[in-house]
Amino acid sequence: MRGLFMAMAISIMVIGSAMGADEMHPDGDSTTAKSIASEGRDVATIVRHFDSAPMAVWRAWTESEQMRRWFGSDPQGTVIAASADVRPGGNYSVTFADGDGTQHTASGKYLEVEPYSRLVFSWHWKSEAGVTSMVTVLLKPDGKGTIMHFQHAGIGYGSSHNFEKGWQDTFDKLERVLVARDSR
Question: Which residues, at least 6 apart from 165, have a Cβ–Cβ distance to it below 8 Å?
């Protein structure tokens, strides 16, 4: 059973199409993509390249109007409400509905805010009282684009949410929004 739980805790590295076979680890070393598991870690880690500047990716994470355009993993879903007081100690909340109408609300507090480069905040699902996790978003310039190092830690083995798939689908939506914005 312990092996099953460890398998659930595997961190997934997702490579953006422009990154090729090698990727950048959060510590800056280039290495072949692989999944990582360690006992007691319940972390989803995603490294993703966007063809937009760090400022555009930052705004997508920190401006309520931008968040409304991409947040939520269901490609047919929509954001109902989003608010963000982006400062250490400030709160955020985002409510989105899946294509079938199921609503989800996530909220938390910003802990670290370094404009255009680092955002750390707590994460609480309204549907999972008492479960708190931590999200870290690091943005690094990469030519005309951005490498985003994303980590969602403390997600818990008992959560009903598939965080890895959910964040991957969410970042696919973010990429589409950024591409549409940049093509204007």
Answer: 73
User: Strand 145-153 to strand 133-142: parallel, antiparallel, or no bridges (unpaired)?
Assistant: antiparallel
Q: For residue 184, what pLDDT band results from cuts at 50, 70 and 90?
A: low
Per-residue pLDDT of 85-110, as tens digits, reads 999 999 999 999 999 999 999 999 99
What the block records as the tokens of 5 is 């739980």
29, pLDDT greater than 60: no
Is pLDDT above 80 for 39? Answer: no
Please list, residue by residue across 133-171, b when 16 or more beta carbons sit within 10 angstroms of its beta carbon and e when fewer do.
bbbbbbbbebeebbbbbbbbeebbeebebebbebbbbbb
What's the DSSP call for residue 177? H
Q: What is the structure's pLDDT at 2?
A: 32
Q: Where are the domains of the chain?
A: 2-182
CATH superfamily of this structure's domain 2-182: START domain (3.30.530.20)
Distance of alpha carbon 14 from the chain centroid: 12
Both structure tokens of 65: 């109007």
84 vs 5, 151, 156, 158, 180, CA distance in Å? 34, 19, 25, 28, 23
